[in-house]
Amino acid sequence: MKKILFIEDEPALQTAFTDAITDSGYQIFSALDGEIGINVAIKEIPDLILLDLVLPKMDGFEVLEELKKDDNTKDIPVIVLTNLESSQDIEKALALGANTYLVKANYDLKEVIEKIKENIK
């Protein structure tokens, strides 16, 4: 079973996505802040990471940077799922190694699941 790590600080979103992703046949791990997200990524080596950018302790940009520096996590596809939609944020996330950048308001759960399927190894 493919593993997905969802790093998101909003519990309601965590719950909705956990249900939808599990129903789609994936195992999901959750982290409510950037530090926990990095630790879970290193421990579990997920097949894909969904990453919010606005997070406590360590923002998503810092998480992305750390993931891409580590030999064990650098090749894991990362989908940024955030409400930040400035072109600078998009360019920065992609430059740091994100595979896809999704603005939460523009995608429903079903569309996010499709993006997961497109990006998962």
The residue ranges in which pLDDT falls below 50 over 5 or more consecutive positions are none
User: Can you count the beta strands?
Assistant: 5
Give me the strand/helix succession.
Answer: EHEHEHEHEH
Q: What structural class should be given to the helix and strand makeup? A: alpha/beta
- In what order do the strands lie side by side in the largest sheet? 2-1-3-4-5
Helix content: 40-55%
Task: Write a structural description.
- There is one protein chain.
- The protein has 5 helices and 5 strands.
- The protein is globular.
- It has helices spanning 11-23, 34-44, 60-69, 87-95, 109-119, and strands at 3-7, 27-31, 48-51, 78-82, 100-103.
- The relative contact order is 0.19.
- The protein has 121 residues and is α/β, with parallel strands linked by helices.
- The chain has a 5-stranded parallel β-sheet, with helices on both faces.
